[in-house]
Automatic annotation (TrEMBL):
Residue span, Polysaccharide pyruvyl transferase domain: 129-244
GO molecular function annotations of the record: transferase activity
Keywords: Transferase
Pfam families xrefs: PS_pyruv_trans (PF04230)
InterPro entries the record matches: Polysacch_pyruvyl_Trfase
Native species: Petrotoga sibirica
Domain of life of the source: Bacteria
Name listed for the protein in its UniProt record: Pyruvyl transferase
Top-level taxonomy: Bacteria, Thermotogati, Thermotogota, Thermotogae, Petrotogales
Length: 310
């Protein structure tokens, strides 16, 4: 039973005034618990160099964004705490990593590693302490236009996931389609689901991170309107096709171009998927390519690889 139904039931049973009083007590207990947890987590960050503050977009579950604390824990043995969940007593450094988030972050001590802008009109709202790496050359160009020094070190950290997770799954589908979460209910997706039940796997980008990666690896080819569907396919050497299902994806083409340029991919325009295309048409539209990027350079540039108290 959800909160609203419980409230209505309480009103019917004991009246509005009693229901309101009970609800306020419940909210107060929840708020107090959150506040206490935030204080505890804040001291954890303060007391240990293995606990760092990392910003990622967390308004809803979305594969690329939720990878942040997982990758940081698995690869660098650090516990990542979101700045909105703690009180930054000592004004410790806030890092940004995976995501099109540079237009959002605004911290006194910001260090950037692998992040990008969401569109060509974005700008950084604060002066960073240091920029270690960015997603791609378009993001770097925008930062330089703002007068910030930005080294020519590229790479979305999502490309590093195979360094700690390599599922043993069989290729059981000819094509995997990864729709951006705004495209999940797209009519074309529903049409293809009905037409190609055996050959196409539809992968939920808001699913558990292992499940998303496992399902991508079950497919011979990936078609995605989600950037991190493409990045994950590239990370595991699975040919992919950037597709467009709607105009709903924030940022337009910018973040896709930024990433494609960082790894030397030639596809600069999305494949406009519609009901006229058959499965073979989609598969034949995928170009033969290999990504070209120095991932060790990205790893070595990581500012919290061997962190000291700050």
């Amino acid at each position: 039973m959800n909160i609203y139904n419980k409230f209505i039931e309480e009103v019917d049973k004991n009246g509005l005034a009693y229901a309101m009083k009970k609800s306020i007590k419940h909210i107060s207990r929840k708020t107090e618990k959150i506040r206490i947890n935030n204080i505890i987590d804040s001291f954890k960050v303060l007391m240990s160099e293995n606990n760092i503050i990392v910003y990622w977009w967390n308004s809803l579950d979305n594969f690329g964004d939720t990878l942040n604390p997982i990758l940081i824990k698995k690869l660098f043995k650090k516990n990542a705490y979101h700045p909105n969940k703690i009180i930054n007593f000592r004004n410790k450094t806030v890092y940004s990593a995976i995501g099109s988030i540079l237009q959002i972050v605004n911290y006194k001590k910001l260090e950037i590693w692998g992040s990008g802008f969401i569109d060509e009109n974005s700008f950084l709202k604060c002066e960073p302490v240091e920029i270690h790496a960015v997603r791609g050359p378009l993001t770097r160009m925008k930062l330089k236009q703002q007068g910030f020094y930005c080294p020519e070190v590229y790479g979305d950290p999502g490309l590093l996931v195979p360094k700690f997770y390599n599922p043993k799954v069989k290729k059981t589908f000819k094509l995997g389609i990864v729709a951006h979460y705004v495209d999940k209910d797209n009519k074309i997706i529903n049409f293809l689901k009905n037409k190609y039940k055996e050959d196409i796997l539809f992968i939920d980008i808001q699913g558990n991170w292992r499940e998303v990666i496992d399902n991508i690896n079950k497919c011979e080819i990936i078609a995605s309107s989600s950037l991190h569907g493409i990045i994950t396919a590239d990370a595991y050497n699975i040919p992919s096709l950037w597709i467009k299902l709607s105009d709903k994806v924030s940022g337009g083409n910018f973040k896709f171009h930024d990433y494609m340029l960082s790894v030397g991919r030639k596809q600069m325009e999305p494949f406009l998927l519609n009901r006229e295309y058959k499965l073979i048409d989609i598969i034949n539209s995928v170009e033969d390519y290999k990504i070209n990027i120095d991932l060790e350079k990205l790893v070595n540039s990581c500012p919290f690889k061997d962190i000291k108290n700050n």
